[in-house]
Specification:
single chain; alpha/beta; GMP Synthetase, Chain A, domain 3; four-stranded mixed β-sheet; four-stranded parallel β-sheet; 15 helices; 31% helix; disordered C terminus
Length: 518
């Protein structure tokens, strides 16, 4: 099926059921379906044709859901842009996608988005129209159809969306997903967790990111369930929504789950409805999963995926032992396959560390810039993830870091994630990121950026080194510099911007001793 057909099916089956909830409105399936038809009419009025790209910088609001399905129903291509992106990233994405229409909020978080688009518009010759949505709902891009719109392209393999990677180290990459790859992902998640139409998804991740799109716009609708969208992240507001809406499912990166687990009001909350909260990203500390399961009484676990391949493995399914949930990133989901390869492309035996290559039915079709595909895929259709990991004897994958997230100290490679996972267990550490610090003698040394649990009592480097030593960490892996921070920079999906931390410590190293505290 196509996305437009799926929504139509659910609207006919359950017209009066609540489909989408945001801070300003509640939409039934019948109302959502009608608004999507009006959205198709509005897109046509702006001259959008099937196959052309519609870009948007919308926060987690019902309008984003309407635009997503309206674009699909028209047969156009939906290209969401994370609202925190600046002019440089927005210009790059609009130009590369050849967007003909941009849909933005009038203002959000103090940003004048129409002015931002007008600033970059001279550099985007394809852009014909701009729609600015104010606080009113229904929104300005809606039309008034005389008849129901069609349900989109006849071929489910047609491109439905261009999703951009976080772009933490270079220009973001546009990943092409079809109706089929997205719906296959939804089906795999449904089967993994045995989900039904009684689910209520409470979604803090931006719907412009792969996680928010999947769990806030795609999976709830394919199930005939309910999506509750959060415009901005606040742990207490999240808990309010779980209580009020009887939320059953959420998902997100480490900061989201940690914010819930550490809430000072947790003990007096009624969270009995919340059943599942998987946590994704390469920076999920094992101790966080253990605490989440214990404190929230939910089924949690780590998962591994990317914009290009949303859900490769998971440890949050039914019947997975606690150790596997906390300490691994899970086993391949459904028919997905993974291979670990060394630098020469040879397969690594069980227990050995290598680069992760993966393939499966939800894998993206390729990049918007096709010149990137040759390095990304092999002849057998495996995708090069750029992540390092190992597989244990039970088939569970553990990600140890990025190929480029390795500290090379005196010629020896050190996994930053191994150090981070241990430091996260220290009672004085709330958040941590380990990055390389330039050094003229050894090439790189280990630097730890730490957000203290109590700002008035931050840990000292000696405390952390002693803590790691007690856990028998090799001396060569011990941090040689500590940077105390109020917060760590993150992408919209909650992953730490290590590129910014590397730049920061490199600048400090150039300005003085590169060795730092010993």
């Amino acid at each position: 099926m196509t996305l437009g057909e799926v929504l139509r099916r659910e609207a006919r089956a359950r017209p009066g059921k609540t489909a989408v909830v945001d801070a300003r409105t509640r939409l039934t399936y019948a109302a959502l379906d009608e608004l999507v038809d009006r959205g198709v009419a509005g897109l046509r009025a702006h001259g959008v044709r099937p196959g052309e790209t519609v870009s948007c910088l919308l926060p987690n609001r019902a309008e984003a859901v309407v635009l997503f399905y309206a674009t699909a129903r028209l047969g156009a291509v939906y290209s969401p842009i994370v609202p925190i992106y600046g002019a440089r990233e927005v210009r790059f994405i609009l130009r590369q996608t050849g967007s003909v229409l941009a849909v933005v909020p009038s203002h959000f978080r103090g940003v004048d988005y129409p002015a931002l688009i007008e600033r970059v518009r001279p550099d985007v010759p394809s852009l014909r129209s701009l729609v600015a949505i104010d606080e009113a709902f229904p929104s300005g891009f809606l039309g008034s159809p005389r008849a129901r719109a069609g349900d989109g392209p006849a071929e489910p393999g047609a491109i439905a969306t261009i999703l951009y990677t976080s772009g933490t180290t270079a220009d973001p990459k546009g990943a092409l997903h079809s109706h089929r790859t997205l719906l296959t992902e939804a089906s795999a998640t449904e089967q993994l967790h045995r989900l039904g139409d009684d689910e209520v998804f409470v979604m803090p991740s931006p719907v412009s990111h792969i996680s928010g799109l999947l769990y806030g716009m795609l999976l709830p609708i394919t199930l005939g369930a309910t999506s509750v969208l959060m415009e901005t992240w606040d742990p207490e507001r999240f808990l309010d929504l779980v209580e009020q809406e009887r939320g059953t499912y959420s998902a997100g990166a480490t900061p989201f789950l940690q914010g819930v687990v550490d809430s000072p009001t947790l003990a007096r909350r009624d969270l009995r409805s919340l059943r599942i909260f998987p946590c994704g990203g390469a920076d999920v500390p094992p101790e966080l999963i253990r605490r989440a399961i214990d404190r929230l009484g939910i089924r949690s676990g780590r998962g591994y995926g990317s914009t290009e391949f949303p859900s490769i493995t998971s440890s949050s399914g039914r019947g997975v032992p606690l150790a596997k949930r906390a300490e691994t990133d899970g086993a391949p989901i459904g028919p997905n396959e993974i291979e670990l390869r060394d630098d020469a492309g040879n397969r690594v035996p069980v227990g050995g560390t290598g680069e992760v290559w993966a393939r499966g039915p939800e894998l993206f079709l390729g990049y918007r810039d096709p010149s990137l595909d040759a390095e990304a895929f092999d002849a057998a259709g495996f995708f090069r993830t750029g992540d390092l990991g190992f597989v244990d004897g039970d088939g569970y994958l553990t990600i140890t870091g990025r190929v480029k997230d390795i500290i090379v100290r005196g010629g020896e490679k050190i996994s930053a994630k191994e150090i981070e996972d241990l430091l996260f267990e220290h009672p004085k550490v709330r958040h941590v990121a380990v990055v390389p610090m330039p050094d003229p003698k050894l090439g790189e040394r280990v630097c730890a950026f730490v957000v203290p649990a109590d700002p008035a009592s931050p840990p000292a480097l000696e405390e952390l080194v002693g803590f790691l030593t007690e856990r028998e960490l090799s001396r060569r892996k011990l941090p040689e510099r500590l940077e105390i921070a109020e917060d760590l920079p993150t992408t919209a999906s909650g992953k730490i911007r290590k590129d910014m931390l590397r730049e920061s410590i490199a600048g400090k190293a150039r300005g003085g001793s590169s060795e730092g505290p010993r």
